[in-house]
Amino acid sequence: MFDPGQLGRYGWTDAVSARFTPHLTDDLIPARVTRVDRGECDTITSTGPIRARIAEHYLCTGDWVTIGDRGGHPTVVDLVPRHGTIMRSSASARSEAQVLAANVDTVLVVTAIDGDVDLGRIERMLALAWESGATPVVVLTKADAVPDPALALAEVGAVAPGATVLAVSARTAEGIDILTAVLDGTVALIGPSGAGKSTLANTLLGEDLLATNDVRAVDGKGRHTTVHRELIPLPSGGALIDTPGLRGIGLWDAAEGIELAFRDIEELAQHCRFDDCAHVAEPGCAVLGAVESGDLPQRRLDSYRKLTRENDWVAARSDARLQSERTRAVKSQSRALRQLYNNRRSWQSR
Known about the structure:
Layout: H1 14-20, E1 29-37, E2 40-45, E3 48-54, E4 64-70, E5 73-79, E6 86-89, E7 97-101, E8 106-112, H2 119-132, E9 135-141, H3 149-157, E10 164-167, H4 176-182, E11 186-190, H5 197-205, E12 230-233, E13 239-242, H6 255-261, H7 263-269, H8 286-293, H9 298-348
């Protein structure tokens, strides 16, 4: 029976062990990626850390992999199927997804409470978190900097149905014990720069392992302190992934995540007169009725529409790119066949 050893501190469970079963052979060892660099990655194995080459796979912090000797160098051989994958649309011109963290169980959606709390950004990050399959927890940091955190808690709680919302202070330790109690498995932090993610991470880790920066006084915005995603074991159990601050949070195939983030609107939609109601001007629309009665803020409906339109557009663009790639492949094969036939006829005519 395999002894996970040090992997036990990095999220190894019976479920993970079962996922490894088809990938293990006598010459391969299981490992978890703790940090990714260009062409290489840091991993942890049952006996300790190993620096390995990345031959074929696109890897992300949190991935489970197998490592074997290839050409005298430790090399990633197999990527174990992921779960709890946080993905966003890449900033490139191509329609591609960027993996922010893999095999995550809890997503901490972090935002600072001492400024303007951007509800639309929180809704967007919640859609991202729900889509991953992990459990989202909204963490309002810097609770000691405002006179009454309860006001922000109520405001954010109204746009986070189904998610736990907590106000914490790394400086005074307010709410940290409650936050620690709700953490489960591998925990990833997402949020904008200046939200206090690295400071919160250091508090949860019990020591200053991650660098921190102050928010710029000129515009109140944060500077990117975390530049690499890194997996670190938590003293309370499980592991933590700190991610760089997110300026843009494009959705990628997040229809289910949007439904869960806006489950209040989805529940209202069940009472609309028409099954295909677009909640724009249809008679008997329960969603519009809730807006008119004041039970649903217009801002929240606008946010729901915006994210839905964006997700539909990204999906359509991705489908168009895939179709274009298929068309190019077919044309390339057709050209190769024509060349083959032409060469054959030329040979036969000699």
